[in-house]
Amino acid sequence: MPDTLLFALEASLNGLTAGVMYALVALGFVLIFKASGIFNFAQGVLALFAALTLVGFQSGQIPFSHLINATLGTRLHHFGWNMPTVLAIPATVLVMIGLAILVERFILKHLINQEPIILFMATIGLAYFLEGFGDIMWGAEVKALDVGLPKGMSMAVDDATFNWFGYGFYIDRLEIWAAGIAAVLVAVLTVFSQYTKQGRALRAVADDHQAALSVGISLRFIWVLTWSIAGIVALVAGIMWGSKSGVQFSLSLIALKALPVLILGGFTSIPGAIVGGLIIGVGEKLFDFFMNPIIGGATENWFAYMLALVFLLFRPQGLFGERIIERV
Amino acid sequence: MKMTRLAATLAATMVVAGPTLADTLHFPSLSYRTGPFAAGGIPFADGYSDYLTLINERDGGIGGVPIRQTECETAYNTERGVECYQSIRNDNPLVIQPLSTGITYQLIPRTMEDGIPMHTMGYGRTSAVNGEVFNWTFNYPANYWDGASVIINYLLDENDGSLEGKKIALLYHNSAYGREPIPTLERLAERHGYEFLSIGVDSPGQEQGSQWLQIRRERPDYVVMWGWGVMNPTAIQEAANIRFPMENFIGVWWSGSQQDVRPVGDGAHGYKALAMHGTGMDYPIYEDMQRYVIDAGKYAGTGDEVGTVLYSRGMYAAMLAVEAAKKAQEIHGVAAITPAMMRDGMANLEITEELMVELGLPNFGPAFSVACENHGGSGAAMIQQWDAQAGEWNLITDWIDPDRELIMEMAMDDSIAYAAENNISPACLN
C-alpha cells in the first residue's frame, strides 16, 4: 500500500477516536437542549467544574481553602488523606446532582415560559459564575488527573497494523477507552430515555412542556434530572480531557469543539452527536494531512467550523436534527 | 440612602488613607488570574507582587519612597489588556509589564506616545532591542530570537558543532507569540545546514493529534516548542505517547514551568526547556522573603507558588524594575521619579553578578547592561531538564550565548521597517 494512503488511513483512525472525544462534550449539550430547548453555554464549564471536583476529592483538597486562609490567616490546604477514585467519582456525581438542584432552584425556576434566548443568556451567566466559583473552591493551578485509564500508544494496534501493512499505526489508548465509554454512555442514555418512566417523561417534556404539565409531569423534576444527567456526562468528558492534558481552566474551552459537532449532528439527537463528532474528527485530520503541505498547519479549529457552515447551507437542522417548519 | 452614605464614607476614607502620586512609586501589574491561561499568570503575578512587597517591608520602598502596587486583570486577552493600560496611563505608572505578546504589540505605539516605559521580559516584539526605534520598549535580558538561537547553539554543542543533515521541527502556538522564532530558525537553518520544519497548533492547543502524527511521520531529530498554557502539557503528553525521546524535546522558557510537566507525570521525565533565570528556593533572598512577606502573611495570592519557575520569573521582573528605579533615582537625584525618569533608569541599567549576589540572587540571572543600541540585554539562557521522580527542574548547562550578531542584524532590518511604516526617525533619547 502506498505510504500516503497508509498515513491517511492512520490519520482517519485518529480522527475517529478524536471525534469521540468531541462527541462526549456534545452529548451534554444535546441532553439539555432536547429536554428544555436551552442551549447550555455552561456545558464546557460544567466539565471543568466536575473534573476540578473529582481531582479535589481524590487529592483530599480542602474546598475553599484559599478563601479560608485569606480570611482566617490559616495555612490549610489538604485534609491529609486521599480519596480512592471509586469513592471520588460517586462523590463528584453527588456534587453534580446538587449543582443541578441549585441551578433549577435559583435560575430555571424563575425563567419558566421565558424566551429561549433569555434561558441561553442565563446559562452564559452560569458559565461565568461557575468558572469563578470553581476557582475559589479548588484553586486555579494545573492538576494532574489519574483515574487509572491507560494512556500512550496502543501496542496491539501498532503490532497488528505493522504485520498487515509494514507500518505501525499510532492510536492513543486513552482515546480507545473514550470510544468504549462513549458507546456505553449512549447505550445507557438510550435505554433510559426509551424504557424508563423518567425517560419517557423527559421525552414528553421535550416534545411539549404544556402537554407534559397537563398530564402531571413535574417540569422542575425533569429539569433537575436533565441537568444531573448532563452533569454526569460533563464529568465523563472532564475525566477524558483532563486525563489527556491535566485539569486546568482551559478545559472549559472544549465546548468550542462541540459546537460544529452539534451543527453537524443536530441539537436534538444523541446518535447525531456521535456521528457529528466522528465526521468532524475524521474531516479535520484528513484535511490537515492533505492540505498541510500546501497551506501550512493549524487548520483544525477553523476547518471544523467551515465544515459545519457547509452543512448549515444544505441541512440547517443537522444530520439527525428535527426539521422545524414555522408558519408565518 | 444608607448605601449612599456608606459609599461616600468609603470614598472619603480611600481619599484620606490612599497614597498620593507624589509620595509613592506606582508599579502596576497587568496580570491574569482568571481565564484559560490563569495557571501561568497567577505565579508570575504573585512573584512580581511579593518582591515589591519585600522591598516595601524590608527597605521601606525604593530610596525611601514606598511602592504602590496596583493590579489589573487582563485574562490574557489583548482588548482587556489595552483597557487596563488606558485605566492606569494617567496614574503615573513607572513601567508597564503587559505579560502578553499580543498586548505588547498594541501598547508599543501607545506607550511611545504617552511616554511610559514598557518592559517585555522574554516576550513581545523582538526587534524592540533597537532602542533607537523603540525608545520606550525594553526586552532585556533575552528575547524570543535569542531563545531560538540559544537552543540551536546548545544543539550544536550536543552534536560536536554540526547540525548538518539533522531535522529540527518547531511546534508553535499559532499566534504572534508562537510565530516569532520562525525567521530566526530559518536563517539559522541556512547557516548550519539543518532541515527546518514548522508545525502550528491552534490555540488553546488541547487537541494536537494531527501535529504529532506528522512528527511521527517526519521523524525529526529534535522538536523545539513555542507553547503556552494547555498546549504545553498536551504536547509533552503526546510526545510521551509516541515515544519521542524526551531529551530531544526542548521548549522555550514559556514552555518550561511546573504547570507544563506535572500533569504528564513520569512521561515528562527528561523534557528540556530554556531557563532565562534560576529557579527553586536555594537563594539567600528567600530568607528575607520568608521573614518579611510569607510569615507576615503579606504574600500575594495563596502563597503556595513561591519558588516555582513562573513565580521566580515574576520576582525577577520586579527585581529588574526596582533596580531600574534605583538607577533612575541615581541619575536624576530625586527619589519620587516619573515614568520618563524611569525610562532613563532602564536605558542605563547595569546588572552585574556582584549586584545579584548583593540582592541575594547569585547566578540567578545573567550579567548584562542596557544601552540605546541594545534594549535586549545579553540574550543568554540556560537549559534545564525535568526530573519527574524528584519533581524538580535541574539546570544542565551554564549560560549559553545566542548568535547576537545575526539577531541584531535581523532586529535592525525589522525595526527599521517598523520605523519607516510608522514615520519614526530612529534616534536615541539620551
TrEMBL record, chain A:
Residues passing through the membrane, by range: 12-33, 45-68, 88-108, 117-140, 176-196, 217-241, 261-282, 294-314
Keyword set includes Transport: yes
InterPro entries named in the record: ABC_transp_permease, BCAA_transport_permease
Superkingdom as given in the UniProt entry: Bacteria
Primary location class: membrane
Name of one Pfam family that matches: BPD_transp_2
Membrane topology: Multi-pass membrane protein
Alphabetically ordered keywords of this record: Amino-acid transport, Cell membrane, Membrane, Transmembrane, Transmembrane helix, Transport
Name the record gives this protein: Branched-chain amino acid ABC transporter permease
Species of origin: Roseinatronobacter alkalisoli
Organism ancestry: Bacteria, Pseudomonadati, Pseudomonadota, Alphaproteobacteria, Rhodobacterales
